[in-house]
Design a protein that fits this description.
By secondary structure, the protein is of the alpha/beta class. 31% of the residues lie in helices and 24% in strands. Helix 1 crosses helix 2 and helix 6 runs parallel beside helix 10. The protein starts with a strand and ends in a 6-residue tail after the last strand.
C-alpha cells in the first residue's frame, strides 16, 4: 500500500521519484518548479529528449542521477496538452514501464506525485493502478507525496466490530475525530460474522467522509489491517477478486473504493488495552447488537450460500438444511420465528418475504410429493408445508 511523505523534493529519501508532466514538460502543482531548482539535471535531460522527439504520452523517461538522492527520476508524460485528457492506456503503459525499470535497476522505494486531472482518469483510479501493479512486487515500497496542508489536518478513525456468537447477531462502532470535532457511528445486524463487522466499521468510517481526506484509520482486527498493509487486497483485486471466491467480497469492494478516494494509513491497535477511542468503539458495537430493530446483512447470506455446507450442520436436501444462523432470526419478543406456512411469511434464516414456487416434476412411484414450496430469493432456502403435500392414492389404502 501507499505510505505517505511530504512533497518537498529536496528532502526525499527514496530510491526513485515519479513526476507527472504533459508532453511539453509542464507539471501539476509546484513539482516542476521544484525540479528546475533542485534537480536541474533532470529538467535538462527531459528538454534534450523533447527536442530529439523522444517524448510521447505513456512513455516514461528514466533519468539516472549518479551519487544523488533519489538515484532515479521517472518523468511520466500522461497527456499531450496541459488541458488534455489523461487516458487509461497512457497511465497503464507508463505504470508498467516504471515497474519494469524499477526491477531492472534494483530500486526498492519510489515516491509518486499526485497525478490525473478533471478530464480523463482521476487520481483515485490512477492510484488503484499503481497499487495493482506494485502488489506484484511487494518488496518495493510506494510513497505518496502529500502537500504540507494535507499533512497538517488528518482525520483519525477508530473502528471495532463483533458478533455474539460469531456468526450470530452483530454490530459495529466507529469514532471519527477531526480537530475539535468528533462523530460516532454504529449499527446492528440480525445475523453476521465478526470479520464482517470489523470490515463494515472501516467501510462506514471512510464512507462517512464527505471529501477526500488524509486519514489515520485504526482497527484492532488483523483481518482488516493485514489485508491492506501486506498488499493482499490489491493482489486479489488485480486478479478480478480471485474469480469471486474472496470472502466478504461485497464489503472489500466498498472498502477499496472508499480507500482510494482518501490518503489512508492503516494501523493495528490492541483491543481492550485502555485506548479510549477503541474502548468507545467496543461499547458502541455492543450496544448496537442489543438494539430493538436489527438490520439484515444481505452480503452475509450471499457469502454463506456460496460456501460448502459442513457435515455437522447440513443434509443433502436444501429443505432440511439447518444452520446456526437460523436460530438468530427472531421475532420482536426474541422467540424463534415460526415455521413459514404461506407466501409472504419471513424466511427463518434471513427474514426475507418468501415466494411460492410450483414443482414441475416428482417421482411417479413416490408415496407422496409436494406440489409447491416456499422459497427465499435472498438466501435460497426452501420450505415445504403440509398444505402442499399430495399423498398417492394407493398409499392411502
Amino acid at each position: 500500500m501507499f505510505q505517505y511523505c511530504h512533497d518537498d523534493l529536496s528532502e526525499l529519501r527514496t530510491d526513485a521519484v515519479v513526476i507527472e508532466v504533459d508532453c511539453a514538460g509542464t507539471a501539476n502543482g509546484n513539482q516542476w518548479s521544484q525540479l528546475k531548482s533542485i534537480y536541474p539535471d533532470v529538467t535538462a535531460a527531459y528538454r534534450k529528449a523533447f527536442t530529439a522527439g523522444d517524448i510521447e504520452p505513456g512513455r516514461v523517461l528514466r533519468i539516472a542521477r549518479t551519487d544523488q538522492t533519489p538515484a532515479h527520476a521517472f518523468v511520466f508524460p500522461s497527456r499531450v496538452h496541459p488541458h488534455g485528457a489523461v487516458r487509461r492506456e497512457y497511465i497503464e503503459k507508463g505504470i508498467d514501464d516504471v515497474t519494469e525499470q524499477m526491477l531492472r535497476v534494483g530500486a526498492k522505494s519510489v515516491a509518486i506525485g499526485r497525478m490525473g486531472s478533471d478530464r480523463g482518469m482521476a487520481w483515485s483510479e490512477i492510484k488503484r493502478q499503481w497499487l495493482y501493479s506494485f502488489a506484484r512486487v511487494p518488496e518495493i515500497k510506494l510513497f505518496g507525496m502529500l502537500s504540507r496542508s494535507t499533512i497538517a489536518a488528518p482525520v483519525t478513525i477508530f473502528t471495532d466490530g463483533s458478533a455474539e456468537p460469531n456468526r450470530g447477531q452483530g454490530g459495529y462502532g466507529v469514532v471519527l475525530r477531526f480537530g475539535d470535532h468528533s462523530k460516532e457511528l454504529s449499527d446492528g445486524f440480525r445475523n453476521t460474522s465478526s470479520n464482517r463487522m470489523e470490515l463494515m466499521a472501516a467501510v462506514a468510517g471512510l464512507e462517512a467522509l464527505k471529501q477526500p481526506c488524509r486519514v489515520h484509520l485504526h482497527s484492532d482486527s488483523r483481518y482488516v489491517t493485514d489485508m491492506v498493509n501486506q498488499g493482499t487486497l490489491f493482489r486479489i483485486a488485480a486478479k478480478n477478486w480471485g474469480q469471486r471466491k474472496t470472502k466478504n467480497l461485497d464489503l472489500w469492494k466498498r472498502f477499496l473504493d472508499a480507500f482510494l478516494v482518501h490518503d489512508v494509513d492503516m494501523a493495528w491497535v490492541k483491543g481492550h488495552a485502555g485506548i479510549n477511542d477503541n474502548e468507545r468503539c467496543d461499547q458502541l458495537a455492543a450496544r448496537a447488537v442489543k438494539q430493538e430493530h436489527l438490520k439484515i446483512d444481505v452480503g452475509y447470506y450471499q457469502n454463506t450460500t456460496k460456501l460448502k455446507p459442513s457435515k455437522a450442520s447440513t443434509t443433502s436436501h436444501p429443505a432440511k438444511r439447518s444452520t446456526a444462523a437460523s436460530s438468530h432470526v427472531a421475532s420482536k419478543d426474541n422467540k424463534p420465528a415460526a415455521k413459514p406456512r404461506k407466501t409472504g411469511d419471513p424466511c427463518r434464516n434471513c427474514g426475507t418475504p418468501l415466494v411460492r414456487r410450483e414443482v414441475k416434476k416428482h417421482k411417479a412411484d413416490a408415496a407422496y410429493h409436494f406440489s409447491w414450496y416456499l422459497y427465499c430469493e435472498n438466501c435460497r432456502r426452501m420450505y415445504h408445508v403440509e398444505e402442499a403435500k399430495v399423498i398417492r392414492e394407493s398409499s392411502k389404502l
